[in-house]
C-alpha cells in the first residue's frame, strides 16, 4: 500500500516538474519574442528615430525608420514615427499624411511617441500648427481625453480658428463638466469672437495698438497711424516694422511694447514738421515714444502705396532709429564732458573773444552769432558759442573728443527689434579745421540718430550711466507664459556722477537763461541743449535734447526737426509741449 502511494507521489512530482519545464520553455519563448523578436526590434528602431528627431538629426531618424520598414512595412507604429519626424521638420502636409496612414493601419496608442506631451511642448514654444497636428492625432488615438481636447482647442485658438476652438472646448466640457481650464479658454475665445478682435501688440500699459478682426481676418491699427514705423506692414509690396521683423509671433502670441501710447500720441501731435521724437525712461532705457514724420496710415497702404513712394520726404524711413543727421551743438555735451573729466581748467580757455568767425587753416570757421566776450563754459553752453567750443576742442585734442563720443554711443551698433543705423564719428581728424568742426558737432562724416541723441540726454539724466535702449518689453504665448522678456541693462558707464551733475546745472541754465528758453515749463526745471545743423542743402536741422524734471528725471528726449529751422526756434517748443502734457503740467 505504502509502495503504491510512494509511486503515485513520485509520478505526480515528475508531472509537476514537466509542467514547470514547459512553462519555463514558454516563458523563454515569450521573453525572446518580446526582447529580440521582430516587434521589439521595430519598436527599438522607432525609439531610436524619436531620439534623433529630438536632437534635430533627421537623416539618422529616417535611417532608423527605414530599417523598421524593412522588417514590416505594414506596421502602423512606423508611420506614426514618420508623422512625428515630419511634424518636427515643420512639414505639416507630410506629417498629417503619415499620421492618417498610421490610423488607417490600425494604430493604437503605444506610449513610445507621447503625442500629447510633445503637443504641449509645441504650444509653449509658440509652434501652434505643429501643436495642433500632435493633439489632433492624439485625440484620434485616445478619444475623450480632456487634456488632449484642451490642447487641440488651444492650438486652434492660437491659430485664430476661433469657432473651431469654441466647439472643441464645449466638447471637452461635456467630457469634463466645470473644468476650469476649458472654461477659461472658452470664455476668452467667446469674448474675442463677440468683440471681433484678437490682440497682437499692446503698449506698456496693456492698451491694444494692433488687433486682428475675428470675422474678417483684417488687421486693426488702433494707434491712429502714429505708430506707423513701429508696427509697420508686411505684404509682398511692403515689409517694415514689427510686422516684418517679428511677424513669426503672429498669430498666437502677444507682444507688449515699452511704448506708452499716450506719450506716443502727445509726441506725434507736438511734432508738425518732418523729423523725429524719441522719448526714453533714463533709469531703464525703455523707449516710451518713437515718432517719425512724415507718416503713412497702414489702412491706406494698398490703395495709396504709389503715392507714398512718390513723396519727396521718404515716408517709410524710420527717422527715429534709421535717420542719420549732423548733430550740431547737441554734441557740445560730449565736448564739455571731456573737458570736465580731463581736468582742463576754465582759466586755460576763457575768456574767449567771439567775433562771429575765425580763420583756421586758411578757411573761415563760423559761429552763428557774434557773442563778444564769453567768460565761462556755462555761458558758452547758454549761447552755444562755436568759437568757444572750438578752443575747448583745440586744448583737449581730437583723441579726447573721439573717446567721449564713443562713450556716448557713437560707432556702437544698437541691437533692437527694428533696424537701427549706427551713429558715426570718424576715427581720424586730419586738420585743425576738422577738429573745430567736431568739437562743435559739425562735419561731413559726423552723424547721429535721434535714438542716440536721446541716449545722450538719458545718460546725463541717469548720473552718467547709459542704459541700453529697448523697444519690446515681453512676448507671451497663448498660454500666457513669457517666452521673451527684456530687462534693463547697463550699456556703458559713460561719465562720473559728479560730471553728470555739473552738466545738468549747465543744461538747466541753458533752458532758464540760454537758447533753450522756448522749452521752459512753468513749475518744473528742464535740462536741455539746442542744436542746429545742415545735413543736406534743403535747410537747417533743428535739434533739442533734454530731460525733465531736471532734479528727478522721468523722461529723456531728443527732437529733430528735419530741414525746418534752428533748434531753439523749432525743436525746443516741441519739447515744451511734450513735457508739459506728458508730465501733467
Q: Could you describe the 3D structure shown?
A:
There is one protein chain. Helix content is 49%, strand content 15%. The protein has 585 residues and is α+β, with helices and mostly antiparallel strands. It has a domain at 38-194: Tetratricopeptide repeat domain (Serine Threonine Protein Phosphatase 5, Tetratricopeptide repeat), CATH 1.25.40.
Please provide a brief summary of the model.
The chain is an alpha+beta fold and 585 residues long. Helix 16 (332-342) packs across helix 19.
Core attributes:
single chain, alpha+beta, Serine Threonine Protein Phosphatase 5, Tetratricopeptide repeat, six-stranded mixed β-sheet, five-stranded antiparallel β-sheet, 15% strand
- CATH fold call of the domain at 38-194: Serine Threonine Protein Phosphatase 5, Tetratricopeptide repeat
How far is the first residue's CA from the last residue's CA? 121 Å
CATH architectural grouping of the domain at 38-194: Alpha Horseshoe
Please tally the β strands and state the result.
19
Report low-confidence residues grouped into runs of 5 or more.
28-35
What name goes with the CATH superfamily of the domain at 38-194? Tetratricopeptide repeat domain
The coarse overall form would be elongated
Q: What is the gyration radius calculated from CA atoms?
A: 35 Å
On the 0-100 scale, what is the average pLDDT?
92
Tell me the helix content: 40-55%
Query: What is the helix tally?
Result: 23
Beta-strand residue percentage: 5-15%
Biggest sheet record: 6 strands, mixed
Category from helices, strands and their pairing: alpha+beta
Main-sheet strand order equals: 3-2-1-6-14-15
**CATH class term of the domain at 38-194:** Mainly Alpha
